[in-house]
Amino acid sequence: MNSTLSFAAGLLLPTLLAPFALAQEATGTDRERIAELERRLELLSEEIAGAQLGAARPPLGDGAFGFAPGAARIYDVEEGVSIGGYGEIRYDDVQGGADTSDVQRAIIYLGYRFDEKWLLNTEIEFEHATVENGSGADSSPGSVSVEFAYVEYQHSPTFGARAGLLLVPVGLVNELHEPSNFLSANRPFVEQRIIPSTWRENGFGVFGTVADVWDWRVYVVNGLDASGFSSNGLRDGRQKGGKAQSDDLAAVARVDYVGTPGLMVGGSVYYGHSGQRTPGLSANVNTTIAEGHVDYRAAGLHLRALFARTELDDVAELDAALGLVGNATVGESQSGWYAEAGYDVLHGSGSEQSLVPFVRYEELDTQGSVPSGFASNPARDREYVTFGVAWSPIPELVLKADYVNGDNGAGTEPDLFRLGLGWVF
């Protein structure tokens, strides 16, 4: 690559420099042409210099406007295309169950900045390695999805609007779900079942920052689909942007304090109807999700905590429409919380490596309360203690190992040993 550019430069430079010999005599249009040639020469020189410097990788940065570093690549581009991505491979040893290894996801971020005001940002996700038709040994669990795809207008550095398939701005992981953003081999259980990450819906909204102290986002999106609700939470009510039923809409608002370096404290509220066109259901199934969170990363410390609660109306009517009886009922309330602490033992060593032992405790109950005449399933009341270590040889790569001690009211929750490999660029 370097020799090719140098050869090209050797051919082009004499041509580019020749007009300067006439600069003393040139006037008007000639001077404009010479100025343009000077500009092109400077660009060519920068390209050659960049190639000769070798593979100096662009820094990941800190993310921007509610997006993790890889997803925020487009915000570093003045015009044209941006490319980023991430991926995760995981091995799960389920105590007393089947062990699995999985290319959980491979992601490509592809963005395009049209000009200083308008941009497009997308995330294309490949899950579980293979997507193919077939049955038996030829079948596969894989899928291809658009994780987000939105057009954005940046009115100013502190205010903008976006529309398309949007990540719902709830919790610590849903928007910032790259593997370098969480220490465990998989995302916290609370942010899978109480907050159904990764959660995206079609919609539009506005976002901004106030005095570099407050970040905020307000969106209107299509509502969840209550026909997917179960005793295990709301996760299967996500519509993911594909022919999403939009008879019922929802609004979500989020505010974070970011005025202290390394600290983010905030919360979000989601409210909307989820009835959609569920057969046999005429109720709205009003759905509220509220959460508060704190994340602190400084001086080698990694501290975070989150509490989330969901409230549903019309659950008895929903159970009847879905044919749910006994302890299979959808929960009228669901809640969960976790607290996590880790410390980078290589902090201050001058190395770009990090080695973070951590521990996390979490509780969740997807049947915190149930309609009259129904019973809760004790297996839905769970707690987990996760302890492990995350090693990053460079900021873009992370290797993880953890052990999860699980328990529930029925005594049936298995323990897990997990290994993870993640990357982001």
TrEMBL record:
Keyword Oxidoreductase: no
Signal peptide: 1-23
SUPFAM superfamilies linked to this entry: Porins (SSF56935)
Coiled coil (residue ranges): 27-54
Record keyword Flavoprotein present: no
Keywords: Coiled coil, Signal
Name of the protein described by the UniProt record: Phosphate-selective porin O and P
Record lineage: Bacteria, Pseudomonadati, Planctomycetota, Planctomycetia, Planctomycetia incertae sedis
